[in-house]
Design a protein that fits this description.
Helices cover about 35% and strands about 20% of the residues. It contains 10 helices and 11 strands. A hairpin with a 2-residue loop joins strand 9 and strand 10.
Amino acid sequence: MSTAMRRVRKIVRPAHWAVASVLPGALQRHYLHWVGTGRWGDFSSPRTFNEKINWRILHDRRRTIADACDKLRMKETARRLVPDEGRLRIPRTIWAGTDPDRAPVDAGEPWIMKPNHSSGEVLHSDEADASELERCRDWLVSKPGRQLGEWGYQVARPLLLMEELIPSEDGRSPDDYKFFVFDGVPRLVQVNRGRFSADASVVFYDPEGGVLPLRSARTPAPRADAEELPTSWSAMVALAAELAANWDFMRVDLYSVGGQVWFGEYSPYPGGGVTRYQPSSWDRRIGDWWRISPA
């Protein structure tokens, strides 16, 4: 992104969120969808994937949606569905609470802190000075789900969650495998590599490991060189199917380190229903896989 574009975004973004924050319910979702995808959506009879995400945000009030937005509960769900730690490691919870001053920051092991009730915020143990820990307190007040109208995050328990850091073989963040599962069948895998690094990339695969001609407009372009998939790829595909077996749609995030598969999280609202897919025809193609359940 050019310097000029960054400056424009810095000016425009606050105005965008100011507009979104005052719009009611469905109108807010329509506005966000229009800004994100470039077109007005149909949330009454949704057909595209983004439209169906917005339909879920506006209408789906199943308790399981709320559980999938509560990180402690989603870990319990994953452990119940796949109790064998040899097949699926679930990051151990070190501490959960509302006062970061009580968190055992000198736990003697690498850890991460994140809000139990929203996504996108994280603090690593090697960054944990007093000011950064104080910033975690703000996570309990400022909830992204509330701003975006994402009901599941609004009703999840507002807690801070400290858990063991998933290890990596090279010291970088491990590759993130995001499985889009429809009626228990993985159809699409988004692989995020090199997160937080200058050479970050996002590649979409089919369940057999073939690269798909698909990307998101707001994610880094795939690298020119081919990337090998882990030896645990087939195991991850099977685990994603098990973890999302009872859902019409759920995204399941997994990691693979040294052949060991780790659980990341469930995501019922991936991209917030505002992802601009390229080519745009994929929005409808992915949507065709999703037979939405009555709310």
